[in-house]
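User: ok so my PI wants both of these folded by tonight, can you help

Assistant: No problem, let's get them done. Here's the first:
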Amino acid sequence: MDTVSERKPYKTGLSDGQWALIELVIAAWKAAHPSVSGHQGRYGMREIVNALLYQGRTGCQWDLLPHDLPPRGAVMYYFTKWRDDGTDQTIHDLLRWQVREKARRKADPSLVVLDTQSVHAAAGVPAESTGRDAAKKVPGRKRGLAVDVLGLVIAVVVLAASVHDNAAGIALLDKVAADTGTVEKALVDQGFKNAVVAHGQTVGIDVEIVERNPAQTGFVPIPKRWIVERAYGILMLHRRLVRGYEHLPRSSESRVYWAMTAVILRRLTGATAMAWRSA
């Protein structure tokens, strides 16, 4: 039973217009995965998504989901199912294409910007999937993003923080090439080395290392490179991403897709984003 109309909605919840943008995808998934017993499920799919968006924005633990949202077991079931079969990325990508087309751009970009971010791992995260970023002195995980010129995520990878940026860059290029087939150029900073440039040639992507002007001091935004930094800043409003809370790196990647899905849904429907002070 869908209880969305029976309670006061949370600020993270889907509006009718936002739900309409993803309802058909989820309804098709549900139809393709019927219960063996024929039971349709106790909880509406819209409420399942509302719970995922609530948890992503607030960062709450599974056991601390509000009582008027579906329980941990139901939400976790769909989160893992959609993570494992790629439905989370499918929903995200369909919405991303709409934003790009609305901006009078082709569905997939020709240029991406790559960067990495290291975040501390939470207690209980398996040690074998974490490490220490020697440069940034951060023990935890490394999150790599490839974004387009609008700041929309094209690819995401999550690795141990000890993994060099080269490995993250290579993994990102492989994902970009596999998922789009249109990207011709990638901009990276000086943390990425020639190995990434060489790998780009093997997948048909020209990688340019954008160097900082040595005459400049302090924080100076670098043209186009700042776009990926802004994307990280937006993601940090989603508290589930502030640390590496997920046991599996793939779950961390899924959290990025859900966070950006929430951002894109607001853009497509003209909804006002929550102020950072209320984040």
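One down. Here's the second:
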Amino acid sequence: MPWNDNANPGPWGAPPPNDGNGDKKPPPRRPTGGGGGNGPRGPRRPEGPELNAAFERLQQQARDFFGGPGGNGIRPGAIAAVAGVGFGLWALSGVYIVQPNEQAVVTTFGAYSRSEGPGIRYHLPAPLERVEKVPVTSLNRIDIGGTATNDVPAESLMLTGDENIVDVDFSVTWRVANARNFVFNVRDQDDAVKAVAESAMREVVGRTPLQDVLTRGRGQVQAQAAETMQRTLDSWNAGVTVVEVQIRTANPPTEVVAAFRDVTNAQQDAESAANEANTYRNRVINEAKGDAAKLIESARGYREQSVREATGDVSRFDQIYTEYRKAPGVTKERLYIETMQRVLQNSNKVVIDGKGASAPIILPPDVFRPRTAAPPAVRVEPQPETGAAPAPNAGAAR
């Protein structure tokens, strides 16, 4: 191999090119950084002919590796080595990683084979087996009826049970419950869930009055819509679980908002008047019930008092009768005295024992004045000119 062969250059690179007469031309010298043109040269960079030579060397080495004895044919070992490397790369293409929130569905020639959980997994390389990863713990949300800035009347306008029109914007939150059913039983899963949600909401709103959709019945509408959606998706074996249905806004159509506000204000006034009437009714009824209870309790107290007084009178009469049977005279005198005392104890009267007295009796003025306590006994004496004996003591004033 000659050193000046361009196909196989020597270790110092290709020889300098020749001119037409075969004379060699020295290569131009490049100046270095600090000195002049005659300064020391740095390491020589590869030039165009050197790159071509390196590439040709690689080609020659490949020909030597794959070429058979004498440069004819291809070596069997080379073919086996290339095939082994290709097979190894093809086999390693079946290694895949399943994230914690995912589940892998493995298919063999398009048919379901198995499901794999999180971790490093392996499947037969394509086209034997393929893998589709499905997020099974992530929550998905679909907005129906548009957004706050972009309304979609075709999705939001619905007919209520009392034949009114309502504009309902709502959202559906769902997740994948069964990756196999989700992949194989439903095509365009997001569009399918959205269509089922819209249909379910229209069905529930269609049997609900407008006032319930706008106010107090909104929670019930949401629950019924979620239940209807889940029932439909289960009948399809869609592998989807409905987490929540939330009504974002529910308003009458824009054209009738003013009239609807007037109706709402009138209803609020009617409810306010009804509440005031109920308050007055409750107050009057409670007062009447209190008065009735008071009268009943008073009557019961009077009845108890009368019964006990009558019982006491009967008991006292029995005791007096028992004593009367033992001593009738004494008992009569005692009864008479007690009766007269009870009758005369609050009267301004003077009892005078006038036996044996003939002169007039003069009573002091204090006897006839009202008093609370019993006055002392008054002694009355006859006038001196009559010569009569002094009268006995007068009785106590009562």
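The chain has a mean pLDDT of 78. The radius of gyration is 63 Å. Good luck tonight!
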